[in-house]
Amino acid sequence: MEVHGGPEYVGRPAQMIGFPDAVKKAVLENYVNFSGRASRSEYWWFQLAVFILGIITAVLDGIIFGFEFDDPTVLSWIAQIGLFLPSLALVVRRLHDLGRSGWWFLIAFVPCIGIIVLFVFLVQDGQPHHNEYGEVPTNTL
Fold this sequence. Notes:
Layout: H1 19-29, H2 40-65, H3 74-97, H4 114-123
Helix pairs in contact: 1-2, 2-3
């Protein structure tokens, strides 16, 4: 079905991807995959997993190395380094879902307003049709 000569509308995924599936898809299947698209639910579930992992590593660092909150220690750094590339790749794929280039991520470095603009992009619903970055994410593994 084409609307006024525009792209074919195929609809968004009928259901959200679950928490474990989002983490598995982001880390195991798309560790440094910057091509394709990622659904909104996949992105936010993964961000929740990163947040929970940050809390766990901070507590373990506190138990092992002492509770000094002025800087992260060994476990926190390992987790941050290990999740940097999948997090970046997921942001790029999420921007692709909106029909935007992954280079829009750099807007986050604009003082004050940049991170707000990026956040607004990340919470928007993706395009309900195929775009130059691929098909609509199916939320299936």
